[in-house]
Specification:
118 residues, mainly alpha, two-stranded antiparallel sheet, 6 helices
């Protein structure tokens, strides 16, 4: 089975939930912005991506994942396949030169690569 067959779903994930794509309003309402990678996929995909971009302190990200309802329902082989695909994606994009209009992009891609393979 190919990874794309394993990481399917009917949820509309953001695919890039990180601190600069989450705006917190004055009432505490969170809004996701920059939906450039939107697709359909598994409900747990954004949780994986968010945990990779977060600093959970002393908490174990895997325990956080399986402790969440969408993570608990995820098949481990699907999550593994998704992580392998992310590692390939971030390794490729981190090898690309930075863009003049987004000089921070190269560092962010490398951070994402390290978080995924680490």
């Amino acid at each position: 089975m190919m990874w794309a067959e394993l990481a399917t779903g009917d949820t509309l994930p953001h695919c890039d939930p990180r601190s600069d794509n989450i705006l917190i309003g004055p009432c505490g309402t969170a809004r996701l912005v920059d939906w450039g990678h939107t697709c359909t996929g598994p409900a747990w995909g954004d949780l994986v991506c968010l945990l990779l971009q977060s600093d959970p302190g002393d908490a174990d990200p895997e325990e956080i994942f399986v402790g969440h309802p969408v993570g608990e329902a995820a098949e481990p082989k699907w999550v593994d396949a998704f992580l392998v695909a992310l590692a390939g994606y971030w390794t490729h994009t981190a090898s690309l030169p930075g863009l003049a209009h987004a000089p921070h992009l190269h560092d962010r891609r490398e951070h994402s690569r390290q978080a995924t393979i680490g």
